[in-house]
Here is the input.
Amino acid sequence: MPPYKVRRTLISISLSLCTLAIVGGMTYWLWPGATAATPATAPAVPVTAVEIGRQDVPILINAMGNVRSQRSVDVRPQVDGLLVEFPVSEGQLVKKGDLLARIDDRAIVAALERAQAQQAVAQAQLASAHVDLRRYRALASTQAVSAQTLDQQTHLVAQLQATLKSEQATVAATQVQLSHTRIHAPSDGRIGIRNLHAGNYVRTSDAQALFSLVQLDPIGIDIALPQARLPQLQALMASADRSSVVLRAYSGDGGSLLGEGHLDLIDNRVSGATGTVRIKGTVANAQGRLWPDQSIVVSLQAGMMRDVLVVPQRAIRQGANDTFVWRISDGKAFPQPVDVAYTDAEIAVVEGIQAGDRIVTDGYSRLRPGTAVNILQAKDAAMPVASRSTP
Here is the structure.
């Protein structure tokens, strides 16, 4: 073969090999599935979760209320006189019948002694008149005295009887006045700040009371609830054991439990101005943690739901068309529609899930149906109802 033909053949072979290399490289890079590795799986979303259980849940009515003393007295003088003694101190707890104040009684004692003396004179005069009347009646039977004399003596006896009654009334009134010089506690309670001190002359016409006395234990609770609650309240009041309707009083921020008691009554009308109905309750207050006119948060137990599914309130999510929770199954989260039967600040009673299901309580903002999850903290079921200390 001539040399020029050999060179032409070598050039053709070289061009063919280059073409094959280019086509093979393009096929490797462009053919589907020809890449070296598939993308990595998305990481699991960290969440916290609880396992759902059944329990009894009290139905609570929560509202703002005010503390009212069941007996509050402005202690005022009932007689004029010099205030000589305060046997009790400001802020002191007293019992019914304790001596609270004493007014100078010397003038009234003297008046009482005078009235008693006049009563004794009237009694003696009446006794003498009765003796004469009996004598005149005996003589009248023999006509030793005239009928006129007998009539006069009869009228004198009647007059002296009236005089004696008048003197007896004067003695009784003066004794009452004397009793008013010693002011006693009408009930158990706490003494307020005094407005006057011993040595002042007091009058019954004084506008200012000596001090106040308020009963603290038990103490009353005054609450205004929407009129829509009226049927529920009426059902409670119609129950056989009204004292079983538990009422709890908390501090104004809803934190500390201050006392427990029961519902007493519903007012006899609804306020047309506010659309609310007033109810009153009684709370034990032996520790003195509730104070008259204090604003409090009141929680009224209106019933009990037995053996129901309970989830934390924060686990409830609101969708466009339904309410749901994120239920965990096989390490993945799925939205599970639920029906909420009851809810308060901490828990919700639901239907649509099963006891033992695990649901997400925090970290759901990044969840999508089927998202893998990493449970950071597994808790027991929602906080037991009995241990909840705030309304």
In short: Residues 3-7, 25-39, 380-389 have pLDDT under 50 and may be disordered. DSSP finds four helices and 22 strands in the chain.
